[in-house]
Amino acid sequence: MAYRPELSAASAVLTREVEVLDERGRASIIAIPAERPLTVYVDKRELVTLMTLGGAPEALTLGYLRNQRLVRSLDDIVSVHVDWDVDAVAVKTRHGIADVEERTSKKVVTTGCGQGSVFGGLMDDVDKIRLPDAARLHQSTLYGIVDTIRTHQSIYKQAGSVHGCALFSARGELLYFVEDVGRHNAVDAIAGLMWLEGMDGADKIFYTTGRLTSEMVIKGAQMGIPFLLSRSGTTQMGHMVAERIGMTLLARCTGKHFLLLTGKERLVFAPELAEVLRYA
Amino acid sequence: MAYRPELSAASAVLTREVEVLDERGRASIIAIPAERPLTVYVDKRELVTLMTLGGAPEALTLGYLRNQRLVRSLDDIVSVHVDWDVDAVAVKTRHGIADVEERTSKKVVTTGCGQGSVFGGLMDDVDKIRLPDAARLHQSTLYGIVDTIRTHQSIYKQAGSVHGCALFSARGELLYFVEDVGRHNAVDAIAGLMWLEGMDGADKIFYTTGRLTSEMVIKGAQMGIPFLLSRSGTTQMGHMVAERIGMTLLARCTGKHFLLLTGKERLVFAPELAEVLRYA
Fold it and tell me: How much is the ipTM here?
C-alpha cells in the first residue's frame, strides 16, 4: 500500500444562513458559502494564509504544497493537522523545505478566479512538461461529463459564490469533486487527493467552473492532465500556454455546446452526434 | 490644480482572435481577452507581477500601491512609466517605500476572482474605517445603475472572461468603468483613478461583476465607499466584514431583482416601485 501521511479530518461547516431583504423589502433567509482563513505552518514556520470554504483542508494543504512545488514527494510529509479553533494547519515534513525563504519570495499575482497567488517560477518548468499525445476524448464522453456536473449535488446550488473542480476518468466517471470559494483552492485540493492516491493524470480529464487562465492551465499540466474543460471562457495567456504545452482546452461547455480551443486532435467528433445536433 | 505624477499612457490591445471548433466541428474565429504580465518596479526594485488585461496599467499600478497601503499619498509618486516591450512598469517615488521587505513578506492568498494576493495586514485597519451613516441609495438609482452596466460597451460582451468594476455618483452617473482579467485589478485601477482625481468615496457607489468576498469589501472600505453592488453573490467573510464596518452590500443585482445583505438602513425602498413590481 502507498505511503500516506497522518491526516486530520477537519472538514468544516460549509454554509451559513443570513437574513436578506429582496426588492420588495421582504425578508428571507439565504445560505451563503463559508469563507475562513487557514494559515499554513510548515515545521512551525508560517508559510501562507489561504481563504477557503473549508471542505477539504488537508487535501488543500497538500495540493498547495505540491502545486507550488514546495514539497516534491508525498513521502516528505509526515503529518497534516488542521485545527479550526485557531484556523491553522500544521504540516510536519521529514526534511523541511529547502530554500523556503528564497522560493516563496517572488510574487506573481495572477488573474484566477480564486486563490490567485503563485509563488514565482511556475512558468519555468512549463516547457519540460509533456502531455500524452495519444490521449483521446470522445464527444459523447464530454457530454456525459457536462451532464454529471450539471446534476451533481453542490454547495453552488445551495449557496452560490463558489467554484467547483472535478476529476474524471477517461471513460467519464467522476473521481473527485471539490468546491471552494477560490477556484485555485479547488484545483489544489484535487491535486492533493491525487497525490494521496498516487494517481496519474495522463488518462484523466479535468473540469472547472472557472475560467481557463494561464495559472489553471499550468496547474493542470503539473498534474499531467491532457484535457481541461470549463463552462467559462479562456484568456490569451491560458490559450497560449495550452498551445505551447499541447494541452486540449475546451471552453463554454454547457449542454451540447462547447468550443474546442487547443490540442484539437485529441477530441473525437462523433458523426452520429453531429447528425443529431443538426436537427437539435 | 491637484498634483499629478508624470504618467505614461500605455493602454494595450485588449483582445486577441483565435480559431475554435464548435460541437459540430465547424471552425470560427472568436475574441478572447488579452492577459499579460506587468512587473511592478518601485525605485528599480521588483515588487510584484500583476497579470492584467492591460487597459489601464498606470491606474492599476497606482491603485495597487494605494490599496496595498505601500504608498500613503499620491504626492509621494514622481512618475509611473509602463513599457509593454518588457512588460514592466517603473514607479519612481520621492522617498521610497519604508520597510518594503517587511511589509510585503506576509502573504494572504485570498478568494477573490482575480488578483487575489494581498500583502498581509489589510484587516488590521478595518476597525478604524468609518463609513458615512447618512448616505442613502434610492431603489430607482440602483435600477438605473444596473441598467447602465447592462447597456455599457465592454470587453466582456466582445470576449467574455473578464470582470468589470464601476464607480457611480450618488445620483447614479457612471464615473469610471474598468475591466480586467482579475477583478481585483479592476478595483485597484478604479482606486488609482480616484486617487489621481482626489476623489472621495463617501458619496459614491461601487459596482462589481464579481463576488463580494472579504477582500472586495475591505478594498471598498479603504476607498471610503458605503455602497457595494454586485451581480454575483457574497461569502461569509465578505458578509461579516461588511456588517462589522457598516457597509451596505447588495448582491444578485440583475434587472429589477437584488438581495440587500447588510447596512440595510441606507437603502430607500420606493413604494411606487414596489407597486409596479407587484404586477411585474
Answer: 0.85
